[in-house]
Structure formats: structure tokens, C-alpha cells
Amino acid sequence: xxxxxxxxxxxxxxxxxxxxxxxxxxxxxxxxxxxxxxxxxxxxxxxxxxxxxxxxxxxxxxxxxxxxxxxxxxxxxxxxxxxxxxxxxxxxxxxxxxxxxxxxxxxxxxxxxxxxxxxxxxxxxxxxxxxxxxxxxxxxxxxxxxxxxxxxxxxxxxxxxxxxxxxxxxxxxxxxxxxxxxxxxxxxxxxxxxxxxxxxxxxxxxxxxxxxxxxxxxxxxxxxxxxxxxxxxxxxxxxxxxxxxxxxxxxxxxxxxxxxxxxxxxxxxxxxxxxxxxxxxxxxxxxxxxxxxxxxxxxxxxxxxxxxxxxxxxxxxxxxxxxxxxxxxx
Length: 330
Ligand code: FES
Ligand SMILES: [Fe+2]
Known about the structure:
This protein is α+β, with helices and mostly antiparallel strands. 18% of the residues lie in helices and 32% in strands. The chain folds into two domains: 9-113, Rieske [2Fe-2S] iron-sulphur domain (Rieske Iron-sulfur Protein, 3-layer Sandwich), CATH 2.102.10; 126-317, Naphthalene 1,2-dioxygenase Alpha Subunit, Chain A, domain 1. A hairpin with a 6-residue loop joins strand 6 and strand 7 (79-80). Helix 2 runs antiparallel to helix 6. The longest helix has 23 residues, at 268-290. Bound molecules: FE2/S2 (inorganic) cluster (FES) and fe (ii) ion.
């Protein structure tokens, strides 16, 4: 099963890394340890210690005089610098690299990588544009889902599953699809969803619901394969909620959410927090249904508005080429 080698993957936002605290990421069946030093530099090495295989991500970081730091193995405390070199006990000399660094491409706070494969696609500029226009609010819902990449992408581009998977959460009455704009690996989907009005008790419990519109207007901007941006707008401001995907292995796909906002009113804070909380529940519910699907069942029934999934399948099957048909429709 393909993991779309050659695509860039956004393995973390810098805010997800505490200074001098190892952070484990997986990509293409390999594990890596990431750590941020006191100057904000990001380091990434293979995670298996070359002595006896302990997970470096379970260790700690040691800061040096120049503010750089090394990662320390939790088993016998060998220290590895950003190049993967260590100094053996009793020796004063640095070894040759014992671990391969993971090549990163850092754009502002965004940490991208091709996972050591040759690039078949450029990194989209959209996140830099969003970061320039909006305020960063936070990241959340970081989850390793037991599903393959294609199943994850199909689910996330499925405009019909709100009524099933997310039924209780949004109380969406129906999904009215408006338009799909297909630009190859980039696309837009526009639809709106009338929601059930929250009652007073629900509003008191969750004041963010006061800002929930009667009709949820969705504009999804998609960057195949790694990003979906949900552009949301209410009277008090705008949010860009970004869903990120990373193929950890054949059987596991990671997702997390980054939230950016543009406030026009102090009350918008409640909406921002609600958006992050909702994202967490959304991901839990998606993760749950993805674990309850039989694999390789031929699809005998096709619903309206599966254009997002058609777009995923076309791009996935022909990656990195973009082939006909163009799926734009209004
Ligand atoms: S296993 Fe890492 S120092 Fe021994
Ligand atoms: Fe979902």
C-alpha cells in the first residue's frame, strides 16, 4: 500500500515541542526523536540508540554552554548531538555520526520533511500565508489512528459522514453541497450545513455554542495529500482550522489540528477554545469509525457529493501525476 513517498509531510508545529524535551515522530515505518534547543533550533535523529536500541525519545536533553543541546539515551546515558555523534566514556573525542539525522525543512514554525525520500512535490505556501495573516491559537488532537493513509484521506474528504460519525456532536440536519474546484493537488469544497439550535442548558455548559451559527458554512481548502484547511467565519471573527496527516506506517496514520484565528471581538476567545475542543472530539470520532470499517469491501453504492473522495482516489492512484477527469462542479 502506497504512502505517497515524495510528498512533504508537516511532522510538527514548533509549539508542539517544549524546549529540551524529546518528542517522538514516526514516518514511513521509521521512528525519529525531535528536540528543540533553547535557541529554538530543531534537531531530528533516528530514535533507536546505536548502543542497545533504547528509544531516545524516552530520554532527556542536556543543554551545552552554547545553548545547543544533545539528546541523552535513557538506558546508559550516551549523549547524541544533532549530527548523531557521541563521546564514549573514557574518550574525549567525538565519534563519527552513529545515527542519521532526519532532513527537515523549517518554514517559520512549520517543520516539514520528505522523510529521506526524493521530493516529488513542493511544499505548499499556504501555511506561511495563514501565519502572516492570522494569530496562532494552538495545536491539538494529536492522534495516531490505526488506519492506512488512503482510508484516512477518504474519511477526511467525505462530505457525507457528518450525519453518521459526527451525528451527536454537531447535530447537523443536512449537508448542502455547493461547489468543488479542482486544481489538481489543490482543491476547494464549499457546502453549508443547517444545525439544530442548542438549548439553554447546553449553551450555559458551553458558551462557545452561543457563537455557533444556525447554518455552518464550510469552505475546505485541500492540499493533497497532507493538509485540509477548514475556513470558518462567524460574526466575531474567522478561523483557519488545519488538519494535518502523516503516514506513520502501513497501518497507522497520524493526524493533528492547528488553529489560527482573526478576532473582531473579545468574545471570540470562547469560539477559539471551542474550535480546539471540537477538533479533538472530531478526531476521536473519526478514529473510532476508522477502526470499525472492513477493509477492501468493494463500494457498490455511491452517494451524492462524494467528489472529495473521487479527488482523493484519482490523486492517490496516479501520484504524483494529476490526470483527467477534472472534478470541478457546481
Ligand atoms: S542503549 Fe543507549 S546508551 Fe545504551
Ligand atoms: Fe470526520
